[in-house]
Write a structure and sequence with these properties.
By secondary structure, this protein is mostly helical. The chain contains 15 helices and five strands.
Length: 327
């Protein structure tokens, strides 16, 4: 009997090629989502033309549209440019030297929103349970929201009173202070996480996400207690890349919503986000007389000039000068 020959597989769709290349280069899931979304928007903007058929004029038109029509921020426009640069260089293997020379939007210069110590206390007073603990940790350590939510059990040093932040922004590790006032609540939170992990193991589950290199080298570590999140999600979820069922950390939007609601209840009129707690941590340390280099290390800033923005906050509102009206 004559057997039919298998037809060759069609080449992957462009966005699937983008995802595959990003994963091969071990970029984060957030970068994958952002870059594929910008590639999709670019193609739709030009009526579904293939990027290989387009060049400088189309890219400049798209970036100009974002700035002029959509009025996006400079950071958003620069992210779109980076995504298109990745698309052409890494996916399509098209060298466009002029793309590097397209002027990036100049970042806006804004002073950070900072709470006063009394506002920070009022905000925390309106929170309870896990949300109180997460917010207290962000304010007490200067961690970014995702750094706090991605904290692993093994990186909490109770005896040394410090927290090790692994693979922070820029892929750097650093150490920050563990506040005395959250020692007991944090220990209780870890005990709750242990009970949840033991139940998962009993059900044949218990895996947690590991960085790519570790997942390949030490696959059994995904079930190890030390690698589990301090703030595990109450529900299991599937990894969007592998389909594996795991317990991730609590959803960041839940924390953002809780802090926004607490600020409203506390009567704080400033736009309060979890990142405001990081700004407040830095500013209050400088107000207390700590050296700016120390604050720089705690925040994980590469350059002290980034940390200097908080000295500008200290000098505003009459803190650095005496008004002529009061002389």
């Amino acid at each position: 009997m004559k057997t039919s020959q298998p037809t060759p597989n069609s080449s992957p769709k462009l966005l699937d090629q983008v995802r595959a290349r990003i994963r091969m280069m071990h970029y984060s899931i957030r970068t994958e989502e952002a870059y594929t979304d910008w590639a999709r928007r670019f193609i739709l903007f030009h009526h579904k033309r293939h990027p290989k058929e387009m060049g400088r004029a189309e890219i400049e038109a798209f970036l100009s549209y974002l700035a002029v029509e959509r009025k996006v921020s400079s950071s958003t426009q620069n992210q779109a440019k980076a995504a298109l640069l990745f698309l052409y260089k890494q996916v399509l293997d098209v060298d466009l030297p002029w793309l590097d020379n397209i002027t990036s939007a100049k970042p806006s210069q804004h002073l950070p929103t900072v709470l006063t110590p009394s506002e920070a206390r009022a905000l925390l007073h309106e929170l309870s349970g896990t949300m109180w603990l997460v917010a207290s940790m962000l304010y007490g350590t200067g961690m970014r929201l995702l750094e706090g939510l991605r904290l692993r059990v093994k990186d909490v040093e109770f005896e040394r009173r410090e927290i090790v932040i692994r693979d922070g922004k820029g892929g750097k590790d650093r150490v920050t202070v563990l506040p005395e006032n959250i020692l007991l609540p944090l220990k209780k939170q870890i005990e709750k996480a242990k009970l949840l992990h033991d139940a998962d193991l009993g059900a044949g589950l218990g895996e947690v996400y590991l960085p790519d290199a570790l997942a390949l080298k030490y696959p059994s570590s995904a079930r190890a207690w030390g690698w589990q999140y301090v703030f595990p999600s109450p529900a299991l979820s599937r990894d969007p890349r592998t389909g594996a069922q795991r317990r991730h950390h609590i959803y960041e939007a839940s924390v953002q919503r809780a802090i926004r609601t607490a600020a409203s209840r506390a009567g704080i009129v400033k736009a309060v986000t979890p990142h405001v707690l990081r700004h407040s941590f830095a500013t209050h340390l400088l107000q207390a007389g700590y050296d700016i280099r120390t604050v720089q290390e705690l925040l994980g800033h590469k350059d002290v000039s980034t940390t200097m923005i908080y000295t500008h906050v200290l000098n505003k509102g009459g803190r650095g000068i005496v008004s002529p009206l009061d002389m």
